[in-house]
Amino acid sequence: MKHLLVFDMDETLLSPDKTISSANRAALEHLRQLDIGFTIATGRSPFMVGRYIDELTIPLPVIACNGGIISGTDLKTVIWENPIRKDLQKHVLEYLSQADADIVAYTSQMVYYSENSVRVEAFRKYNTTVPEHRRAPLKPFTRDVLTGDTEDFIKILLFYPTTAQEEYLRALPGLEVLSSGENFLDIMQEGSTKGNAVSALAQYLGLPIENVAVFGDNENDISMFRSGALSVAMGNSRDFVKAEARYVTSSNTESGVARAIEEFVLPTFGY
Q: pTM of the full predicted structure?
């Protein structure tokens, strides 16, 4: 394997209904035939990607929590992780719990959720679509967990942040705070970025970053575009995201991943 492709999932590799189009599947199979590696880099918890690992037979480690963790395909093996510093974790959790905010928080072993969480329903729905060993383990927050002392959180996801909350959290030093999608605010330890994780994975696999191509559509994908890899933004991206990429393909509703692989990536890599 001389080259690696890394795909964001939602609004990039996945269609709006969270399926993978036939054209994208065919393009990934073409990569496999050429012995080109591929994997995913997502803001999701690692426990929300097992279905796609199995569906696409991904053999390589996956990047989750916006680069806060690199997991083996069994989703139990942690290759690398960067948990939020305990004092920051405690401060953020107390701040959000006092506001009665809708939050879920991810460790390498569990997904915690606030009592009023709407977002947790996405995990419950996902769990109905996968076998038991792929289901996301879910637990409600308890007081001791909310103090930030008992768990190492890789990412805290705030659903429907207010403007004041977003401004406050983005200004806190020591954190990476950005959006992975509409109505989401992702809170991680400083240094937890998809770009850093792509670089770490390339090094782990013994590949130069110039032999890696990355695909994305949102703010949390910009760090990948700046990593030195060949970068592709989706047609459904906002303009400030497109401006960071070397290439812009069509939208995720038009199998933009497949188009970019054939038109941009394979020719650039000499296939």
A: 0.93
